[in-house]
Amino acid sequence: MKRILVVKVTSLGDVIHAQSVVGDLHRAFPGVTIDWAVDDAFADIPRWNPGVARVLCAPLRRFKKMRSLGDLSAIWSSISDLRQERYDAVLDLHGVYKSAIISFLTRSKRRFGYSAVNLGERGAAFAYTHRFAPRNDANAWEGMRRTLSETFGYSIEAVPPTVFSIPKPAAKPEAVKDMPFALLFHATSKDEKKWPTANWTAVGRSLLERGITPLIPWGSEGELREAEAIAQGLEGARVLPKLSIQEIAQHVELAALVVGTDTGLVHLATALRKPTVMIFTATSRPHFGVEIPGVVRSIGDDGRPPSVEEALAAIEGVSGRGAAI
């Protein structure tokens, strides 16, 4: 194959982990060109992957509510971009209507998608000429890689190498100069995924005792209030200013440690192979967790939040990579 389009449009964590298939495909098909179709909200992620040639930013939210000629123009432009290349294969790793529409509009003669029973939305099946079945005996990320490897008959490495090349900041962020620090990603998309404020404060206190400064990111006004509540009991901790995804990624690259709930930004830390502890409270750790010995630990599970003691033990478990923890 000479040119492949991968379609994985959302969400942040899914798009991050799906990048590993790019390296697999390049090793399987030397010289192949790989493009990526993604929601424009997450377009930075495949842009950070040197193995991706073109990033096609689909304005998916505008498909739902067209309010102006500008929206129509953006939609038409994205369709034109899809049809600029003739793809030998289109691989829809998402399996819902929006990804199926993107796949169909390419006009490729080989459009791969999940079998109907495994689709997120069964009606998406109209778009595919070929099917693959997901592997359910592994976590979501490894299963996705195995699915493609078995479909096209190539082997994969057990742990994929990191693929990201994060743009360097013009200057080292002021908040992280001359000190080892840990990022505490407390924020979540759903309340049931949160970990208690007192637990975050306890972890932060332990880090301060080790000479590690806790830095606390946030994205909304509610998350800012929660960050301030965590920091209130931690003399020396810092609440970061509001940051873009790229700025957060730059902080992650400089961090000695990342501790956070099951969210996209914590999955970014695992993909960058930073010492990371992932906390699960209301999602499946076996399905969404990441385990890399000495580097990444996932603790807790759906309906069983981990204790502070478990978190501190996990931090010890990822401290053997030379990080100042």
TrEMBL record:
It is an enzyme of class 2 (transferase). The keyword Ubl conjugation does not apply. It catalyses: an alpha-Kdo-(2->4)-alpha-Kdo-(2->6)-lipid A + ADP-L-glycero-beta-D-manno-heptose = an L-alpha-D-Hep-(1->5)-[alpha-Kdo-(2->4)]-alpha-Kdo-(2->6)-lipid A + ADP + H(+). Keywords: Cell inner membrane, Cell membrane, Glycosyltransferase, Lipopolysaccharide biosynthesis, Membrane, Transferase. Its EC number is 2.4.99.23. The keyword Membrane applies. One of its GO terms (cellular component) is plasma membrane. One of its GO terms (molecular function) is ADP-heptose-lipopolysaccharide heptosyltransferase activity. NCBIfam families: heptsyl_trn_I. Belongs to the glycosyltransferase 9 family. PANTHER family: LIPOPOLYSACCHARIDE HEPTOSYLTRANSFERASE 1, TETRAACYLDISACCHARIDE 4'-KINASE-RELATED. This is Lipopolysaccharide heptosyltransferase 1. It comes from Caballeronia humi.
